Amino acid sequence: MITLLIVVYLSFISLGLPDSMLGAAWPAIARDMGLEAADLGLVSMIVTLGTVISSLMSGRLIRSVGTGRVMILSVLVTAVVLLFFSFAGSYLLLCLLALPLGLGGGSVDAALNGFVARNYKASHMNWLHCMWGVGATISPLIMGANLRGSMGWPGGYRMVALLQGILFVILLISLPLWRRAEKKDPLASAGEKHISNRNALRTPGLMTAMAAFACFVGFEAIAGVWAATFLEGRKGFDPASAAFLASLYYLGTTLGRAVSGLVAIKVDSRRLIRWGCFLATLGAVLLALPLPRPFSLAAYILLGLGNAPIYPAMIHLTPQRFGMAVSQAAMGLQMAAAYTGSTLLPPLTGVLVRAISLDIIPYVVLALILLGYALSQLIDSKTEAATA
């Protein structure tokens, strides 16, 4: 299982690579194609739509062909689509390619998270999501290097497509390891051959968990997307300083997951969620109060550190809360809810900003943290009552 775990770690790095590519490349793409900055929104939404669809389909796919084959197929699709992206010459083609890009990413996400939640300890879940952060950090650097060179944004996409192709080969070679692991996977002996999403939704607490995921991932997205704008518009930072402070939020999340992995060896996932919500709440309160500007630095670091353990801990609790037989279907549904929250809640926050002011942002973040925590507590009460 050690060799397979290394492959899983590499897969999580690979999963993070495409997620931050589009945003890093868009100014150059828009300039070359004569597009506006706002045109990025539609492409991103189509990617998310594909991700939600494949997340909802992941349970059936994994039951039919196994985690290893789903991984191989999804990474191959992602590699090919990224390569095609590099040759795209029109906005229409970018939109058409966005759907299969999302389809590939969603299946990998649900398959990996489900497999790790069933077969490894909570510490690995935190470290693996830290690896996702490494991938999401590397790809803008790759894109930046190509933009400074002669290859431009197409070169950045081709390089990441090559990395995905290398992972495809590694996964193909490791297929026998996946087959052996799948025979020992608790899902293989969990009873039913396939549990549909409709049947899974009847599981006590699952719809509550989906709402909690939407809240937690929504707060994560809002805190990051609106960080620089809030710091410049309400705290008086210049654009460069605001961007730097915003990056500390992501750094706090990545480092926090590395530390959470160590803490998770001794501390259970429910307590990690509680601690994370406490730190994030403290960060949101500091951001909302009219305090001197250095407190904004502390606020975003606390938001990042608090956010760090919540998502991995919620994922790792899935088999415990809903049982092995339902776990993979539940994972796909939770992933779909998470992507929906991260897509819809930041622009909805924009509506509130236009109606009120930028001052509303910390309160929206705070409300989502507290609502997510309340829902998380409610899940446990529902699942405990169902098994009593």
Assembly type of the chains comes to single chain
Radius of gyration: 20 Å
Percent helix, as a range, is over 70%
Could you say which structural class the secondary elements and strand pairing correspond to? mainly alpha
Please state the second-level CATH architecture of the largest domain. Answer: Up-down Bundle
**Number of β-strand runs:** 0
Instruction: Output the CATH topology of the largest domain.
Output: Growth Hormone, Chain: A
- The CATH superfamily of the largest domain appears as MFS general substrate transporter like domains
End-to-end Cα distance, whole Å, is 35 Å
| Low-confidence region ranges | none
Order of helices and strands: HHHHHHHHHHHHHHHHH
Beta-strand fraction estimate: under 5%
* CATH level 1 name of the largest domain: Mainly Alpha
Largest sheet: none
How many domain modules? 2
Put simply, the count of helices is 17
Shape: globular
Question: How is the topology of this model organized?
Answer:
Elements: H1 2-19, H2 21-33, H3 40-65, H4 67-87, H5 91-119, H6 122-148, H7 152-173, H8 175-184, H9 197-200, H10 206-225, H11 227-234, H12 239-263, H13 269-288, H14 294-316, H15 318-322, H16 324-355, H17 360-387
Helix pairs in contact: 1-5, 1-6, 1-7, 2-6, 2-7, 3-4, 3-5, 3-16, 4-5, 4-7, 5-16, 6-7, 6-12, 6-14, 10-14, 10-16, 10-17, 11-12, 12-14, 13-14, 13-17
